[in-house]
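Example 3.2
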Amino acid sequence: MAKVATIVPDVTGLDKQFDYVIPPELAARVDVGTIVRVELHGRRIGGWVASISDGPSDGRPLESLKPIAKVTGHGPAPDLFALAAWASVRWAARRLRPFLVTASPGRAVIALPASRRTGMRPAPVSPATRGLLAAGGGVLRLAPRVDVMPAILAAVALGPTLVVVPEHSTAQLTAIRLRRAGLSVAVVPDDWAVAAGGVDVVVGTRSAAWAPCPDLAAAVVIDEHDEALQEERSPTWHARDVVVERCRRAAVPFVLISPAPTLVAVEQYAGAHGVVHPPPARERAGWPAVFVVDRTDEDPWKRSLVTSPLIERLRDPDLTVVCVSNITGRARVLACRSCRSLVRCEVCDAAVGLADDGQLVCRRCAATRPPVCQECGAGRFANLRPGVTRLREELEAAAARPVVAVTGADAAAPPASGIYVGTEAVLHRVRSADVVAFLEFDSEMLAPRFRASEQALALIVRAGRIAPEVLIQTFVPDHDVLAAARAGDPARILAAERCQRELLGLPPFGAMAVVSGSGSAELVGALRGVEVGGDGADRYLLRAPDWTSLGTALNAADRPSGARLRVAVDPPRL
């Protein structure tokens, strides 16, 4: 008797599943996870086999079902369907498709290659990681300049290992090192078929959390603190949480490695033994030297981001200096030097900036006008927050040597130079330097985001991997972030963070989401058991006691027809 396959259609916006008959000639090639082609409403579409049964799920006669038209190839392993069902609630996705797309190969895989596992156990391995894995897994804190390879090899000693990293370049470098150690490695998504056939290590960026890894024995997430591990598009799933849940279901250990573990990782995944880390002196040796420039005594109307300690380093021809400021253009905040009033937009009253052509431009409404103070008519302004373009000019004048500006909009690799200036994108484009200088760090530490301290410390971690010295210019030299970085002890910021978030019900002590777009008002109006806040401008902040309650409520609420909604669960920049 022919079997029936329940198909998850590969169609955006469709959250139903359909039954199809498995033709006898295709039966040997169809299993749970197989990617197939079927006919739906008169057209051929792709889909995944979610389950196989003896009859239709709704009791219809077998003869009423259409047959599977074609087998495309191999797809996600059966256990990933249950993981996708969990994720669809955790991140309020309502459907499996987004996760199955991530878990599938980029092109059809007709046959899997033979297993390439070597069974090798290379050394050296990290004793701390080995003990953590033996205890069931947890969080390992390693300084920014400490090699994580011994920790990875400790996991490999248990068997097939999944390694998730934030960046593609890190995945490639990790794979090269593992291969040199004699291990077989698949870098996903390109080596999806090789990974599904069986290797010692599967490595990749956040999508690797869904990659095939038969007989998974352990998993490692590198730089758990990095925002690149979270999907930017909706559903905003996080590779860390997917990996931990996948390991829990498979009953295998995991290790989350970071120089500065997030409070979520510490509270939810560290376990009873807490965060494992080296002795304080050894851990501090793995952090960069942090030099803090205290600017609290400077005249507020004569502030320049080019301070004396910075000039000293800029003028040393033997030093490569990377200067970081997350402000592009020439100037974003101006004040009149004559009357000292903030220069504002005449249309919407927002602060205006100075464009490259010398005109004043409003970032909110895009209104432009000549560079004239609206209060007194003067034309000279104090540049309170100069952008990258203006900073490059100032730095060149101070250093008496060329400066290369780097922003996130640049596609090409920056040319060789002794001095670079740019947004935080420069930290991803320049591979090594002698000094990284944060010219205006207060906007990061004091940002109106509840994760601001963690994110500011993550920038210092990134800088410490590029250069042995990090210079930070600030008006709050006693901030907890700076104290933690100087001491090489990121745990210093967690006590205050824990107290504040627990009091306010912020993650990990509560669940939050942002709903925006047309139809959002109707959606939040249908929610039950969820706190709703917002400004009424099609953007609402939701809060619930836990992620399951939040996701269940969002998935159960009716969504208006034709609505263009974005549901961001636990967005990183909230």
